[in-house]
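Continued from yesterday's entry.
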Amino acid sequence: MKHLLPFLTGFVAFVIISGVFYMGIMPYPTSSCVVPEDQMNMGAMFFGNALMVGLASYMVNLAGDFSLRNGAIHGAVAGLTANGLLNIFVYAFFTCDGGHIFPLSEVAIDIIANVIFMAISGATIGAMYARGAAKS
């Protein structure tokens, strides 16, 4: 429970915020090489998101300075590292129909959005650690 509650709080925050953004604001990628939304492997997507939130939880706990501010900083760094690496590698290494799978503008939007989402998620993780969830 010591680390589970901060992680779960951060994960729920991330899933809600990113769900609103990707399902309601950002249009689904138009590339013919992207799996249609109704065929997306949601389990793999949630597991990947859990890994990124887990990295943020680990970083917040490792830093030991539990606060909204520090949680947000560590969450943003985790989001930039994990999501930035993924997006830039996909952009650099994979092509489709003679071009990149995603245009560079979509890559930039996704990275920036995930840094913000992970900062919010990290802040909730930091708040949970600060309120004593890590002491039990």
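--- second protein ---
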Amino acid sequence: MVFNGRIRRLVADEIDLDIFAGELAAVEDFDKCWELIRLNYAKFGFSQIELHGNQIKQDGAGSSSWYVQIDFHGRGHIRLFRNPDAKQPGASALLFIDCLARHLGPKLDEFAQFNTPRAEPVNFEAMAPARITLITE
């Protein structure tokens, strides 16, 4: 068994992540987006998730050991909690974090454009990209 099955697990996680990214691109509202994230975060080794935007959504029971927060500059943030005894490899968690950092911000922008009346148009391309912060306690 090469690397105790880790290569196979990482390939499977990549496939799951590609499916997740495609489904995330297709969701049309905040609630469906949340439901998709809620159904998938545990696959990548996270024990709890919080999404803070116009609404606050939370699922799972996390540990106080560490979490990652992805800020979407003025649009909210997401926190992903991981227990120290998580069974999924860290690489899987990192892939999920990267996917959310790249794809969730534009989705939140899309939802805001359709749901929030604005007096002036917003240039989302000029906004800073997502910022990822690792918090250990």
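The beta strands are 48-52, 56-60, 66-71, 77-81, 131-136. The radius of gyration is 16 Å. Will compare against the first tomorrow.
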